[in-house]
Amino acid sequence: MRKSATHDRARRRIRAGLATAATVAVALGISAAPAQAAVGLTLSQTSGPSTGGNTITATTATSILAGYNSPVVYFTQATCPASIPANQTGLSLTGATTANTGVVQATVVKKIADNKVAVTVPAGVIVVGTATTTKYNVCLYPTAAATTLLGANTTYSVSAAATVTGITPSTGPSLGGTTITVTGTNFPTTSGSITATVGGTAATVTPGTNTQFTITAPQHAPAAGTTISITTSSGTINRTLAYDYINGLSVMPNTAPSSKKWQDVDVFGTDLLNYNFAAASSPAKVLLVAGDYDPIGSTTKAKPQVSECVNVLVIADDELVCTLLLSESYSSSADFSSGEVQTHWTSQASRDLGAGNFVNITGSDKLGITATNGGFKQSDVGLPVTTTGTPTIPAGTTIASVQSSTQATLSAAASATGAVTAINVGGPRTLTTALTFVNGTTSVVGAASTFSAADVGRQLYSTSNTRPGNIIVAVSADGTTATTSRTSAADASSATGTVANGVPVPDGAYNLTIVNNSGLYANDAAVTAAVTAGTYKESVVSSGATFTVAPF
User: Fold this and answer.
1) Which residue in 255, 266, 368, 502 has the most C-beta neighbors within 10 A?
2) 153 and 43 within one domain
3) Would you say 263 and 253 are in contact if contact means Cβ atoms under 8 Å apart?
4) Considering the domain boundaries, does residue 4 fall inside one?
């Protein structure tokens, strides 16, 4: 009994002592600060500009602010104090070169939730000395009461504000890919530390030094005065009216031998889906131009195309393919007052080779013809030949083959062997058989031997049935059918036609140009309307659009 009573008295003394201690603590105003170790803190931004001014959020994994309404945040280069610092005002800073190892209190702290606050970084959080960045510890305390234990912490870095002093070049093709050099100060040099947009489109950035880096211009619709925005940890710089996107092109391949009759090319540009290459009147076209295309003239174009790309197939908004005609070219004096016609495309006239002789090739066949001064070419095969004097040859006779510059074989025998005073070769060949055209197709059908392999690359023209600039790209083995570069313009079952050698595109350097209206000229009412409305589009001369025709 005595032992049990002793134990009861001991327990009562312990409970009384605990109660007294609690009363004293309340009387002294000591906060019931959390006893657990500080937890991690997640910031919405882990870096920012020197001298602060930006607002960030800080979030903890647990609700350490439950029961507290006025949390406190400090920034310090030293380790976060385990409890509220005695000096809450920090050091008196005199400038960015002052070593700030004290504690800088954030004056704007707003509790958002039991685990989240918004903090405006104070002006005293600066880059120290000549460094480009300085790291601070961020210390969150649930309340400002003295000895309140640290609730959460993390790190935050500041950088000297970047400045931009120059951007070059200030123009580039809408296709993108231009390297833009940005100069200034305080640029970070690590990968991913700089981001940029050009005209609102994200660009690829290659860091360099703290005074220079490069941007690869992204693809963008043609536009003048776009803004380049540069973002680093110290903030965003917007340079307005910094970069012009011009309507430039790129072509592959960009050369062809002059012996080639046509060349399929891959053209890269922008906004190509909005060009109507199939319009019945003044369609969009891909043109080959010597210099800068200029459609404005009286009835002729001031600077017309030399040739053009046909069978345009738009693959995507930034790519098309087409067939560039090289075996024929436009007349520089083409009259466009009545629209585009076949006569705009020049053809080779007949050539006077001078005197010659009809001779036998085999036996007495009288199928040979010689030119005293030479002048026959392999390109004469299949073209008309006429002579002056006696003996004679039948109308419609053509050159069947060429053995040398002085001798060729005829398609029909002469009336006799002997001398002639003049030989004329070349010019258009009128087809004697009826031709069948099907609107929208590229096959033209005649009789056997209407066409020959020598006709590939030559102009094929039939009034109302072929489109101007049409050439033969293939011939069937029996010569019945020709495949053409352009689709037929109308159905016909008994049409006539002519075949001729065009004047090839001369050797030289040209520019590929896309226009959305190929029929413009000064007397065309569409000129004023298109220019006034701002609807006329024309790609510009650029290095990527250069196309060269050369002997090899």
Assistant:
1) 502
2) yes
3) yes
4) no
Q: Could you tell me the strand order of the sheet in which 351-359 lies? A: 385-388, 418-425, 351-359, 368-371, 407-410, 399-404
Report the DSSP pairing between strands 351-359 and 368-371: antiparallel
Q: Tell me the per-residue pLDDT of 481-530, one tens digit each, with 9 for 90 and over.
A: 999 998 888 888 888 899 999 999 999 999 999 999 887 765 566 666 77
Q: Same domain, yes or no, for 492 and 509? A: no
Range of the domain at 117: 39-159
Amino acid at 84: I
Q: Is the omega angle on the peptide bond into residue 218 within 30 degrees of 0, that is, cis? A: no
Q: Hunting for tokens 């200029």 — which residue is that?
A: 294
Residue 9 resides in a domain: no
Token pair in block for residue 197:
């947009």
Which of 376, 394, 426 is the last residue before a domain boundary? 426
Q: In what order do the strands lie in the sheet with 492-495?
A: 472-475, 481-484, 443-445, 435-437, 492-495
Would residue 396 count as lying in a domain? Answer: yes
What's the confidence (pLDDT) of residue 9?
Answer: 44
Domain presence at residue 313: yes
Which of 193, 226, 246 lies at the terminal end of a domain, its last residue?
246
- 528 by DSSP, 3-state: which? helix
Phi, psi of 25 (to 5 degrees): -60, -45
Number of domains in the chain: 5
**Contact of 214 with 507, CB cutoff 8 Å:** no
Dist CA 43 CA 32 (whole Å): 27
Pairing of strands 171-173, 235-246: parallel
Beta strands in 2-115 (DSSP E): 39-43, 47-49, 55-60, 72-76, 103-105, 108-113
Determine the pLDDT at residue 457: 94
